[in-house]
Design a protein that fits this description.
This protein has about 550 residues and is mainly beta. It folds into three domains: about 1-80 and about 470-560, Chitobiase, domain 2, CATH 3.30.379; about 100-255 and about 360-440, no CATH class; about 255-355, Tick-borne Encephalitis virus Glycoprotein, domain 1 (Sandwich), CATH 2.60.98. Pfam families: S_layer_C (PF05124), S_layer_N (PF05123).
Length: about 550
């Protein structure tokens, strides 16, 4: 029998989650006296730990009582957890927005597009960007139009029409929020479509005649001549989401963007939890013999294991980047030591969901991605860049098939983001051109993080939920009735077996403390006796024979 009790202890400490699977074929007629069965949980578990001993008779005539005691102990083990409110974590969010630009009646007198000519329609996240193109056209001529990099427009542009803003397109008011470069410059989105009236009086959109741009401008400026170069760590909108520039790689003709999640200082040895098991660690900061130069080592970890590491030198004019696939990107802008030179610090930006934009390649079907480069002749789209290029933005240009014979109801989806539409709005002799957005953006936020998407700032303030933490059992809870006394008990007791099988049950019955006496004809019974074991509560699980005791045990397991 002692060997059986050791096995009970092993089950109670180790396995406990299987207990409910053992409770099958439970009898319906079980007498519960002395209280409610739901109250028993508070008797057997406290603060996530067992608050009782499960006691079986050392000389029990039936091994079935031993099995019942093991099952009850296992069930109690499954109840050992702590609940609390969630203080950290993440949530997957979907942000949805709808908006339209101004519209323009193409068929109105004076608005008609002459044969073999174009009207260029422009909208932006800020109407200043789109209005400025129209206002400067008279001064700059076709140079301004050509900066849109639409196909072969030349002198065939009849007019440029600003349709104002699409309010859900994104504008970044400060592309350098950490003041790495000491600027308060802006960045915004712009879309343009050149609509042509061909020689047969059909409206068409030709290849390369539609574009999406995300451009960085000098603070409060809106002219193409006032766009500025991008650098690591700067923010830029990209298809409705705020993105951080992780790197502009001239060797690979690739631009890396990521969703910023942290911008600040980490002490040497500290980590930041990016989510999904990823962490960024400032492994070391070493001071060089050269003034203002530090060697920084950054680790990227997944589930506690280093999956990427990089060491590089940081100076007043150089930064470093670490990219791990499409998961995590890091830009280290500066580093320093404390006054006593005991610890190092790194100022850095951390981003997740890294996008690798391969210039000149299709980003989505029919739309190729380019770097917008500012040169002496204005803005050009480049698929190959050098370290000396002033990359002021990112563009997606339509390079699909020509769309012809356009009329009301026709549209062009611009990079799966904004739609250029033609609509007569059920009115004769009218055909309106406008831009429309009906867009959803999905993102993941940790508690406390903010994301800019579709021209709205969304912050995850908290998650209203309960967290459940399983608690390991620290000691066996199964005992023999020769190991526990009613007079010296230091925990509540669950007694398995009637007076014949369990001497502690017999003591209670002989002293008249059992609410319902148990004899050979008794059915399955669960009796709660308050304060009967040195002031602790006792739960008796028994019956007139071993089968009835088993039924009572199964009922307790099912309903506990």
């Amino acid at each position: 029998m002692a060997m059986s009790l050791k096995k009970i202890g092993a089950i109670a400490v180790g396995g406990a989650m299987v207990a409910t699977a053992l409770a099958s074929g439970v009898a319906a007629d079980v007498n519960v006296v002395g209280g409610d069965i739901k109250d028993i949980k508070d008797i057997v578990v406290k603060d996530g730990q067992p608050n009782c001993y499960v006691v079986v008779g050392a000389n029990a005539p039936s091994t079935m009582d031993v099995v019942s005691a093991a099952d009850i102990a296992a069930k109690i083990g499954s109840l050992c957890y702590k609940e609390g409110t969630v203080e950290d974590g993440s949530a997957d969010l979907k942000i949805h927005a709808e908006a339209n630009s101004d519209d323009y009646n193409i068929l109105k007198s004076g608005n008609n597009i002459p044969q073999n000519n174009y009207t260029v329609f422009v909208a932006a996240s800020d109407s200043d960007y789109s209005d400025d193109i129209n206002e400067t056209l008279a001064d700059a001529g076709n140079l301004t139009v050509n900066m849109l990099n639409l196909n072969g427009l030349g002198t065939d542009v009849n007019k440029v029409v600003s349709l104002g803003d699409v309010s859900t397109m994104l504008k970044i008011e400060d592309i350098d929020p950490s003041d790495w470069y000491g600027s308060d410059d802006d960045a915004g989105e712009l879309v343009a479509v050149a609509l042509k009236n061909d020689s047969t009086d059909e409206l068409t959109i030709e290849k390369k005649s539609a574009i999406y741009m995300s451009l960085a401008y000098k603070d409060d400026e809106s002219n193409f001549t006032n766009t500025i170069p991008l650098d690591r760590g700067m923010r830029i909108p990209f298809l409705g989401q705020e993105q951080a520039v992780i790197d502009i790689d001239a060797d690979e003709d690739t631009i890396y963007l990521g969703t910023p999640v942290y911008d600040g200082v980490l002490k040497e040895g500290d980590t930041y939890n990016v989510g999904n098991g990823y962490e960024v660690k400032v492994d070391s900061v070493l001071k060089s013999t050269k003034e203002g130069e530090y060697k920084v080592t950054i680790d990227i970890l997944k589930d506690g294991k280093v999956v990427a590491t990089k060491s590089d030198t940081i100076t007043n004019t150089t930064s470093m980047k670490v990219i791990y696939g499409d998961k995590v990107g890091v830009v280290v802008h500066s580093a320093w030591m404390d006054i006593g030179e005991h610890y190092g610090y790194a100022e850095l930006l951390i981003a997740r969901d890294v996008k690798e934009l391969d210039l000149g390649k299709e980003y989505i079907p029919d739309w190729k991605i380019y770097a917008v480069v500012k040169g002496s002749n204005g803005l050009t789209l480049e698929k190959s860049i050098s370290n000396n290029d002033n990359v002021t933005g990112i563009a997606l240009r339509y390079e699909g098939d020509k769309l012809d014979n356009l009329d009301s109801g026709d549209e062009l989806d611009i990079a799966d983001y904004v739609t250029f539409k033609l609509d007569d709005k059920d009115k004769n002799d009218k055909l309106y051109a406008y831009f429309s957005m009906d867009k959803s953006v999905e993102t993941t936020l940790n508690i406390g993080e903010t994301v800019s998407a579709l021209n709205a700032d969304v912050k995850l303030k908290g998650i209203k939920a309960l967290a459940v933490e399983p608690c390991a059992l620290t000691a066996p809870i199964a005992k023999l009735d020769t190991e526990v006394s009613l007079d010296t008990a230091d925990k509540n007791l669950v007694l398995v077996g009637g007076p014949v099988a369990n001497k502690l049950t017999k003591e209670l019955q002989d002293s008249g403390k059992l609410p319902v006496p148990i004899n050979n004809t008794s059915g399955p019974v669960i009796e709660i006796v308050k304060g009967a074991a040195n002031g602790y509560d006792v739960v008796v699980v028994a019956g007139g024979d071993r089968d009835k005791t088993r039924e009572a045990a199964e009922y307790l397991i099912k309903n506990l």
